[in-house]
């Protein structure tokens, strides 16, 4: 199957908030602030996880991968959004749309599964502490991350390729801020029920199943935490787990509302606000959520800042 449709338009017009132009300047300013924040926050997480020996554990290995994902996730869409909001030209080339489609969904699919792996790591750490180093050894961690990345790529390449084959019948207007699979399916003409069904089935495995496993893991973790006699131990376990749960709900909530319903039933503005939330807000908030509720990360960041200023 060809990756792109030969009868495609030269470019797409991204309407965004063209019907509400007063929203464009505030959104442009918000993106201009949150995008550098997301990049700096995630880079800081990666640096401290690599440089501080106390953070050389499976939990921070997975957190580093999450930060890496968030950086590329938000980079795949925000520069294009800034360009469209800041200029009168609201277009993206067909090839640019295809590239954005692949990268955005690789990162999104991978993050869905990575959050489930991170919950499994917390489950083993709290519920099976004596077997933690044996179960979550380096080889297993690398294998889990490789599987997650490979699964995300397989999902994105298969779904995006099938979507790009849909006939557009001369349509080149997308009522969105970016190129996203549900919106492209909704824009396409002809028979697309099979594409909608396939997307829903695939997203059950990438959204509903991982979320179910995460909730089961945390039910077991909650039961184990209440058995911990030390109040300090309970506080530490609650701190690391609550950070992850906040991130899970921030990511899965909008994702499920967008992808687990037929594209034809999606309201006009829903994709725009959902994309802003899980593509911009969540990657910007994640580093702060993990930092503010984790003493180890806060301590490592403090040490990194002190070493930078001391060297100067």
What features would you describe in this structure?
The chain has 312 residues and is mainly alpha-helical. The protein is 73% helix and 3% strand. It is built from 11 helices and 3 strands. A 3-stranded mixed β-sheet has the order 2-1-3. α4 packs antiparallel against α6 and α9 packs antiparallel against α10. It is globular, with a radius of gyration of 21 Å.
Structural key phrases:
312 residues, olfactory receptor activity, 3% strand, receptor, globular, single chain, three-stranded mixed beta sheet, G protein-coupled receptor activity, mainly alpha
Helix-strand pattern: EHHHEHHHEHHHHH
Strand element count: 3
Q: Rg, please?
A: 21 Å
Ends apart, CA distance between termini: 56 Å
Number of helices: 11
Helix content: over 70%
Topology:
Blueprint (H helix, E strand, L loop, with lengths): L10 E4 L9 H28 L6 H18 L2 H9 L4 E3 H34 L4 H4 L2 H27 L8 E2 L6 H7 L5 H33 L5 H29 L10 H23 L2 H17 L1
Parallel strand pairs: 1-3
Antiparallel strand pairs: 1-2
Helix pairs in contact: 1-2, 1-3, 1-10, 1-11, 2-4, 2-10, 4-6, 4-8, 4-9, 6-8, 8-9, 9-10
Summarize the structure.
The chain is mainly alpha-helical and 312 residues long. Helix content is 73%, strand content 3%.
């Amino acid at each position: 199957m060809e990756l792109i449709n030969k009868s495609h338009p030269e470019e797409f017009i991204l309407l965004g908030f063209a019907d509400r132009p007063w929203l464009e300047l505030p959104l442009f300013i918000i993106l201009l602030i949150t995008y550098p924040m997301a990049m700096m926050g995630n880079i800081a997480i990666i640096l401290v996880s690599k440089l501080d020996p106390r953070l050389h554990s499976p939990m921070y290995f997975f957190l580093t991968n999450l930060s890496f994902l968030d950086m590329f996730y938000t980079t795949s869409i925000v520069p294009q959004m800034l360009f469209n909001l800041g200029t009168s030209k609201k277009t993206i080339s067909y090839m640019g749309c295809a590239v954005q489609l692949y990268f955005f969904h690789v990162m999104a699919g991978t993050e869905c599964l990575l959050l489930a792996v991170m919950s499994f790591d917390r489950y083993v750490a709290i519920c099976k502490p004596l077997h933690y180093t044996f179960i979550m050894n380096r080889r297993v961690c690398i294998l889990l991350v490789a599987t997650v990345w490979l699964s995300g790529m397989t999902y994105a390449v298969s779904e995006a390729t099938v979507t790009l084959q849909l006939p557009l019948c001369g349509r080149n207007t997308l009522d969105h801020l970016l190129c996203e699979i549900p919106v492209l399916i909704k824009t396409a003409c002809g028979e697309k029920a099979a594409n909608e069904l396939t997307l829903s089935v695939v997203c059950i495995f990438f959204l509903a199943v991982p979320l179910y496993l995460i909730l089961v893991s945390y039910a077991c973790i909650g039961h184990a935490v209440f058995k911990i006699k030390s109040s300090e131990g309970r506080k530490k376990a609650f701190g690391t787990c609550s950070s992850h749960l906040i991130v899970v709900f921030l990511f899965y909530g909008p994702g499920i509302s967008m992808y687990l319903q037929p594209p034809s039933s999606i309201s006009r503005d829903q994709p725009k606000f959902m994309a802003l939330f899980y593509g911009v807000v969540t990657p910007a908030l994640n580093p702060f959520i993990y930092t503010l509720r984790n003493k180890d990360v806060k301590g490592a960041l403090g040490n990194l800042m002190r070493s930078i200023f001391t060297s100067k």
